[in-house]
Amino acid sequence: TCSWLKNMFTLYKHEEVWNHQQFLEGKILAQQSFKAHPSDVFICSFPKSGTTWLKALAFAIVTRAKFDQSSSPLLTTLPHDCIPFLEKDLEQIVENHKNSHFPPISTHLHYNSLPQSILASNCKIVYIHRNMKDVIVSYYHFLRKIVKLPMEDAPFEEAFDEFCQGVSNYGPHWDHILGYWKASLERPEMFLFLKYEDMKTDPISNVKRIAEFMGYPFTIDEEKAGVVERIIKLCSFESLSNLEVNKSGMHRVEETIAIENRLFFRNAKDGDWKNYFSDEMIEKIDKLIDEKMGATGLVLK
Ligand code: A3P
Questions:
Q1: What is the mean pLDDT of residues 11-24?
Q2: Nearest 5°: phi and psi at 250?
Q3: Which atom of ligand 1 is nearest to the CA of 199?
Q4: Residue 223: its H or E element
Q5: Are 227 and 218 in contact (CB under 8 A)?
Q6: Using CA atoms, how far apart are residues 101 and 41, in angstroms rounded to an integer?
Q7: Which of 81, 138, 139 to mutate to test the pocket of ligand 1 (most atoms within 8 A of CB)?
Q8: From its phi and psi, is residue 158 left (phi > 0), alpha (psi between -120 and 50) or beta?
Q9: How far is CA 146 from CA 23, 119, 180, 210, 280, in A?
Q10: Is 253 helix (H, G, I), strand (E, B) or coil?
Q11: How many helices (H) and strands (E) in the chain?
Q12: Nearest to 143 by CA among 172, 163, 119
């Protein structure tokens, strides 16, 4: 149990990964029964790394012939409810496959935990990662708001220490990134690696890369007509976080569990960690990142 959350959130370790029970059950079910289709595209991420954003972008990209920015379901539906989640929406994905409908599928599973049929197929994987320090702060607020704890009752230092021990939903964070990173070196054609911070500094080229990789490249006419810019605007933090559905709706994770949609949109700032980390914490985490990721050349700091 996570003591900093007053034991209101219990995690279980399985295959070297920590999970909340419901995600663990979803993982095992997917491992036992999911059959990938070669046309599937997976959006893979560690929680709080920009999943909501990437889901919105992927959805807007693949549905752009059907909807424009004034009719998009993204205006009335949380991005998580537009794109099925492997650990939760298995039945829906099976139905989609039956109907030859292959929208992107998202998952937080570690690469080594992916159902065998995904690894055996020619599926594509879009992976997004974000610097570990901002992920910790984002995760801290997300969980403490879910269990409705004010900051004074949820010590950040304890949350930080647990995260650095690898104990978080889908933790360890670094193993998640490393698993996909190593696989991408072996099978580069299968992966598109994205960095949250890079997507912010250069959304246009990143959105074009995503579209092309997913098999939905923009035509020159579309580019000239400003379609890329319109998708970026529709999926921006400013637009999405101000929509009524994302301010007041609820996301049902399970029959008994619902999360307020607004919790997926906090402030989307890079470097917010500077407001939370002591010098000691910075030293500790920089050492951890060097230890775990130093050899990869992936910049996580
Ligand atoms: P912060 O908590 O730092 O604000 P995930 O979607 O993987 O759960 O990640 C959530 C983080 O992405 C949150 O970060 C959230 O504010 C940010 N986010 C949500 N929608 C976004 C968007 N459209 N553009 C950029 N960041 C977004």
A1: 94
A2: -125, 145
A3: 25
A4: helix 220-224
A5: yes
A6: 12
A7: 138
A8: alpha
A9: 16, 33, 28, 31, 28
A10: strand
A11: 14, 8
A12: 163
Distance of alpha carbon 213 from alpha carbon 210, whole angstroms:
5
The Cα 150–Cα 212 span in angstroms is 43
Q: 59 CA to middle of ligand 1, Å?
A: 16
Q: What sign results for the dihedral spanned by CA atoms 74, 77, 80, 83?
A: negative
Q: Is the CB of 175 under 6 A from ligand 1?
A: no
Q: How far is the CA of 82 from the centre of ligand 1 (A)?
A: 16
pLDDT in tens, 56-86: 999 999 999 999 888 999 999 999 999 999 9
Band (301; pLDDT cuts 50, 70, 90): very low
Q: Which of 20, 108, 129, 176 is catalytic?
A: 108
pTM over 0.95: yes
Q: Which atom of ligand 1 is nearest to the CA of 239?
A: 23
Q: How far apart are CA 148 and CA 122, in angstroms?
A: 42
Closest CA to 144 of 121, 119, 163, 172: 163
- Atom 17 of ligand 1: nearest residue by CA position: 268
Catalytic residue flag (residue 129): no
Check if the beta carbon of residue 227 is closer than 8 Å to that of residue 220: no
| 242 CB within 6 A, ligand 1 | no
Position in ligand 1 atom list of the atom nearest CA 52: 6
Q: Per residue in 132-187, pLDDT tens?
A: 999 999 999 999 999 999 999 999 999 999 999 999 999 999 999 999 999 999 99
Ligand 1 pocket, mutate which of 75, 197, 264 (most atoms under 8 A from CB): 264
From the CA of 138, give the closest atom in ligand 1: 2
Cβ of 79 closer than 6 Å to ligand 1, yes or no, is no
